[in-house]
Amino acid sequence: MNATMMTVNPFGENMYILWDESTREAAVVDPGMMRDGEREMVTKFIEDNNLNVKHILLTHLHVDHITGARWLADKTGADVCGSPLDNPLGRELPDQVAHFRINIEVEPLEVDRILSDGDTLQLADETIQVLHVPGHSPGGLAFYLPQSALLISGDTIFNGSVGRTDLWGGDMAQLLNSIREKIYTLPDETVIASGHGPTTTVADEKRFNPFI
């Protein structure tokens, strides 16, 4: 499975396009595009690679991860998938935009498909496992691709750091427990693709992350 990262919006958010070369099936994780140029970049990549976007996967519903979700769903016909525990954040998307003084117009966001811990999605020959990792937000999710040894972690864990917990619904004890129980139990060679910053591995974070 190919995983193409694009960094978008003023928050430097990493969105990911997962796609299979043979079937051209794709999923987009955390489409946080806020500018026309970012939307055009994503559209061009999808069209140039003749991708059929099946799912839009949201690790959580903070503003920097979701502003392009409904636009992309309308354009591709894909369903927007996320945790119902973060629905209050989606409904308050205009308030999030105002809080961070972002000059864009948005509508409240509701997910189309509910994802819970232990759910799976199929993308070509790859099974995507859904992990509930609350702490950064109540409905935080991570997406684990065991065949590709890849975890898309959202803002739960970063290279040498962890997600902030001072926003609505954040809980540091819960976040650390999610990392220990759901992420550190994955194989050491698993690549962690975070919502911001460079990739890392489970082994490196277990050894070097100062917060755990």
Commentary on this structure:
With 212 residues, this protein is of the alpha/beta class. It contains seven helices and 14 strands. The protein has a single domain (2-208), classed as Metallo-beta-lactamase, Chain A (4-Layer Sandwich), CATH 3.60.15.10. The two termini are 30 Å apart. The mean pLDDT is 97.
Rg calc:
16 Å
Order of helices and strands: EEEHEHHEHHEEEEEEEHEEH
Task: Report, as a whole number of angstroms, the end-to-end distance.
Answer: 30 Å
- SS elements, strand count: 14
State the gist of this model.
With about 210 residues, this protein is of the alpha/beta class.
List the helices and strands and how they pair.
Elements: E1 2-8, E2 13-19, E3 25-29, H1 36-48, E4 52-57, H2 63-66, H3 69-76, E5 79-82, H4 87-91, H5 93-99, E6 113-114, E7 120-123, E8 126-132, E9 141-145, E10 150-154, E11 157-158, E12 161-162, H6 172-183, E13 191-194, E14 200-201, H7 202-208
Parallel strand pairs: 3-4, 4-5, 5-6, 10-13
Antiparallel strand pairs: 1-2, 2-3, 7-8, 8-9, 9-10, 11-12, 13-14
